[in-house]
Amino acid sequence: MLSRGRAVAALFTVSLSTAFLSAGPAWADDVRGGQQPVIRTLQLPQAWRVSKGAGVTVAVLDSGVDPRHRDLVGSVRVGRDFTEGANPAGTRPRRLHGTYMASLIAGHGHGDQGKRGIIGVAPEADVLSVRVILEDEEPGFREFNSAERFEDVVARGIRYAVDEGADVINMSISKELATREERAAIRYAIAKGVVLVAAAGNEGDRKISGDYAPYSYPAAFPGVVSVGATDRRLRRATFSNWNSSVLVAAPGVDIMGAGPGGQYWVGRGTSQATALVSGVVALIRAKFPQMSPPLVARALAAGAVDRPPGGYDTGTGFGVVNAARALAEAGKLARHTDTATGAQVQDPAVPAARRRTGPIKVVTRDERRVAVYAAIAATAAAGALGSLAVIFILVRRVRRESGAQDA
To answer: To which protein family does this belong (predicted)?
Structure first.
């Protein structure tokens, strides 16, 4: 079952005596100031010139999101609670972890021009809150993690989010064992064009045969963007799982975020790194809404910085995600996709009145080469079918002759 010890990623509150939880302008300024290392690392100001995530819905499969937090108000739609029945009747969910993650993805700040509080990676995106875990302090936590009826809440949450129109699904959660239902739900989401992003897990100090840290699910499922965490030096954080499922990494130490009831928190973990990457995916999907999940993942990897020696390792994958570079790579992929499919290509230098409204055929040297290769492939396929037919006839003849000898 789900383990929030791995899912929640070692949160810790700042003392009430500090500026982060006191009232007044200095408090809000300090919160945004605390975000500056992440903002610089992801190159968000440059990315925001291209996209801010408008029109994209990110489903946050977590412990619930507080829709009234001033940095999220107006951006959150509260969806289903798949943990219903675990807590005693009348228990109010804490919604700490979910609010924290949602703010990193789509927080829009507050005050004059939104300059106070938490700014998310995709501040114009919308959040769909889907509750699939309980937090440690909730009275139904033990029941939730032991009762068989809650075993497939993640799978049900994924399908629900897809059917509710999510473009991206953030899963800052992890567990040791995979289920058939989860695998099927992930296939369903990818087939619908939804990008799934999940935490690689926080057991990096546990080695399996000395070669890798444990695999966590749903991050280790094929097709899911598995995210590791880096420290302040952009090296793998010691707690971050390292194995071949890790695609990319993002900052995961001393990350500022919002909490329910107007609070602000700071924490560490692959949960936070995952939320930041989901925000970058939202920026890409807003700019290129038809881009398939595999191409989005490719853009994240191709645009990564601080690449490890050799281009890849199990700690940070292809490197640290960079929003501006990922958008640029997505733009390159989108152009190639248009050419390969013959979709309409609109030159911004051509006035709109002169553009053809119907689909046009774009013929390039590359496309003609593709056509030649296609013809060769078709010829080869025909030859292969002919060979199979000859083999089939020979096999039948041998069988007949063998039968005659037996007789």
So the answer is: Belongs to the peptidase S8 family.
* Same domain for 378 and 311: no
Q: Are residues 292 and 378 in the same domain?
A: no
pLDDT at 347 over 60: no
Structural domain span for residue 387: 363-407
Q: Which residues belong to the active site?
A: 62, 97, 271
Tell me the C-alpha to C-alpha distance, in Å, between residue 114 and each of 67, 70, 257: 17, 10, 15
At 65, list the tokens: 């999101």
Instruction: State pTM to two decimals.
Output: 0.78
Q: Cα(371)–Cα(369) distance, rounded to whole angstroms? A: 5
**β-pairing verdict for 263-267 and 11-12:** antiparallel
- Encode pLDDT of 193-224 as tens digits: 999 999 999 998 887 766 788 899 999 999 99
149 touches 185 (CB < 8 A):
no
**Three-class SS of residue 381?**
helix
Tell me: do 386 and 252 sit in the same domain: no
